[in-house]
Specification:
The structure is a single chain. By secondary structure, the chain is of the alpha/beta class. It has 8 helices and 9 strands. It has a domain of 137 residues: Rossmann fold, CATH 3.40.50.2020. The strands form 3 sheets. A 5-stranded parallel beta sheet has the order 3-2-4-5-6. Strands 1-9 form a two-stranded parallel ribbon. The chain is elongated, with a radius of gyration of 21 Å.
């Protein structure tokens, strides 16, 4: 098989296997995805790397709105099933500053489902740093919502902040998220944090392959990352090796900003010579 034929077979196989990445997409989006698959094929030096990339694209979870809405229903059930008086409950977005945040979209989306369960219309807060204001003085149960937990560090920090501010008061704090990495959720629970995750995912390399070959697979990915720009503006590739805090995530909500916990191969937009890549996903963040 010629190299050209091998490349097109690689692309065709993935289009056939990964329906979610191409379903209900515009012609322009499909062409962009196909170009990005071709780009990753060309980035690889050998068949081992290409096999790894094919596995990762095949395993990638792009959550569409149907699955997301099922997650919202499950999240609502997790909140209501606690059995607390609803007028003492507050649903709070994980967002912590003035910047737009995906958790605020989750807060808005979950309102419709909570309304059907007679949840008080005023018991919502779009920033976690505002949830202790005087107008919420009768709240005793805080439910912090978000769409994705990668490394778990944000949840840990938000919980630590709330617990310190609520010291001496009668309260409970619960985190309720649509999707997350299993290792992070397990770590948070082990630290005593109450968290519900509707859609759990495994690490894309370390939890997929036999332990004996994991180091080799990780090295293959490290070699591929070496072809990417070390720095883009103020953002360091070294801080996103295998995904932020080495999360090894293979997840994105359809048509949403891809988490930085995902392997940078899928979203890092420049090569080591600073030329522009044709990436499968786009990421927006300050300083990138």
């Amino acid at each position: 098989m010629t190299s050209t034929n091998a490349k097109y077979k690689f692309i065709f196989d993935l289009v056939e296997r990964q329906h979610d990445l191409f379903a209900n997409a515009s012609k322009a989006d499909i062409q962009k995805r196909q170009r990005s698959i071709e780009e990753m094929y060309d980035l690889c030096d050998n068949d081992e790397q290409r096999s790894l990339v094919k596995d990762m694209i095949t395993d990638f979870s792009e959550m569409n709105d149907d699955v997301y809405n099922l997650c919202l229903l499950d999240m609502v059930d997790a909140i209501i099933s606690k059995g607390y008086p609803l007028d003492e409950c507050l649903v709070v977005a994980m967002a912590h500053d003035h910047s737009a945040d995906s958790s605020q979209a989750v807060l808005q989306d979950i309102k419709t489902y909570l309304c059907a369960n007679d949840f008080p219309s005023g018991n919502y807060c779009n920033r976690i740093d505002h949830c202790l204001k005087a107008r919420f003085k009768n709240i005793h149960h805080y439910f912090i919502v978000d769409d994705f937990v990668g490394s778990g560090s944000t949840v840990f920090n938000r919980n630590d902040e709330l617990v310190k501010k609520l010291a001496g008061k009668q309260y409970t704090v619960h985190f309720v998220v649509a999707a997350g990495m299993r290792y992070a959720i397990d770590m948070l629970r082990a630290k005593g944090i109450d968290i519900h995750c509707s859609y759990l995912m495994m690490k894309g390399i370390s939890e997929k392959y036999d332990k004996a070959i994991v180091p080799h697979k990780l090295q293959l990915m490290t070699d591929l990352e070496a072809k990417l720009a070390a720095t883009i503006k103020q953002t360091e590739l070294s801080e996103h090796h295998l995904g932020y805090k080495q999360s090894e995530a293979l997840f994105c909500r359809k048509y949403r900003n891809i988490p930085n916990n995902v392997f940078p191969l899928f979203w890092w937009k420049r090569y080591s010579d600073n030329s522009v890549r044709d990436t499968m996903f786009n990421r927006t963040q300050t300083g990138y």
